[in-house]
Design brief:
single chain; about 140 residues; alpha+beta; two-stranded antiparallel sheet; two-stranded antiparallel ribbon; 5 helices; 4 strands; elongated; disordered N terminus
Length: about 140
Amino acid sequence: MSGAGVTITAKAEMPETLDIRDLRRPVVMQGLRAIARNAAKQSKTYLSIKGPSKPGQFPGKETGLMRRHVKVHSAKRQDRIWVRVQVDSFKGEDGAGMWYPAALMHGRKKGDLKPRRDPIEAVFSERASEINGEIEKLIIKAL
C-alpha cells in the first residue's frame, strides 16, 4: 500500500475450500516482508534522484527525509496477515508535524505545487505480475 492514500493491492486467488487459517503464518509473513522490503528498496532508489523535480516525476532528493521514511509495516495480531510499504509522516523544515508527502503526491490548489509521481505505487504497478507470482508461491509453501 502506498502511504499517499492510494491503495495498491496484490492478491493471489485462493480456492474457496482454503481458509487463511490453514496457512502457516510465520512462513507467509516472512515472505511478504521480504517482498515488501524489496519494494521499499526500489522506491527509495526512485527517491534518490537529486535536485528539484517536475510535476509527474518522482520527488527529488534535497534533504533525504522522505527517502529515509519509506517503511515496511506488518500485522502484529496473530489472526491477521498483511504487510504494507508507506512513507511515514515526518516533521517539515519548520518543525511542525505534518504529513509532507501528501502535498507532494496530490499537489495543492493554492500555490504552484503540482502532483508528483508516487514511487511506491510505481514499484507495485511495474512489478505486479512478479509480486502476485511470489505471493502464490508463498501460499503453496505455507500450506
